[in-house]
Specification:
Blueprint lengths: L4 H13 L3 H11 L4 H13 L15 H16 L3 H13 L7 H13 L3 H13 L7 H13 L8 H10 L1
């Protein structure tokens, strides 16, 4: 069986659009292993998904306004200092889910979450530094943020940050 990241991203996007927090987290982790083109294709496939033409899929897409309402709620919480919402908003800007894709804006929200001690935000910011996404690549800064996340016990299963976190823990 071959890995199909684009198809997985499509299904995780559909689950995330319905409010499934686990799908949202897995989707963010998967996106760290994908190219921007793959992410865009997976997002497009999710938008175009029609459950009527996919019998027995067991999944239906979110109503268009649900994603908009959810985004409004996330933004309001993020602007009021909720670190998890700041992380989630950063993910939205990184992937372009419900907003125009904007890597520097993603970094801004990841940083706000990270500076409050939110481990997933620290890890995401470290990944941005490690890959030069939304800011200049800086391995030393990446390690700094990975270390902060690792000190809180954050463990990543299948991303490039997993190796970095395991190395800074030692």
């Amino acid at each position: 069986m071959t890995k199909d990241y684009v198809e997985a991203y499509k299904w995780l996007s559909l689950g995330a659009a319905q409010g499934n927090a686990n799908a949202r987290g897995c989707k963010a982790e998967l996106a760290g292993q994908m190219t921007p083109e793959q992410i865009a294709k997976g997002a497009r496939l999710a938008r175009e998904f029609n459950p009527i033409s996919a019998p027995n899929s067991g999944t239906s897409p979110a109503k268009p306004n649900e994603t908009g309402r959810e985004l409004i709620e996330i933004r309001a919480k993020a602007e009021n200092g909720d670190a998890q919402a700041q992380f989630n908003l950063g993910d939205r800007y990184r992937t372009g889910e419900g907003v125009a894709k904007d890597a520097p804006e993603a970094v801004k929200w990841y940083r706000k979450a990270a500076e409050q001690g939110y481990a997933r935000g620290q890890c995401a910011l470290g990944t941005c530094y490690a890959n030069g996404v939304g800011l200049p690549k800086d391995d030393a800064e990446a390690v700094t943020w990975y270390r902060k996340a690792a000190e809180q016990g954050l463990r990543r299963r299948s991303s490039t940050s997993a190796l970095a976190i395991s190395q800074v823990r030692e």
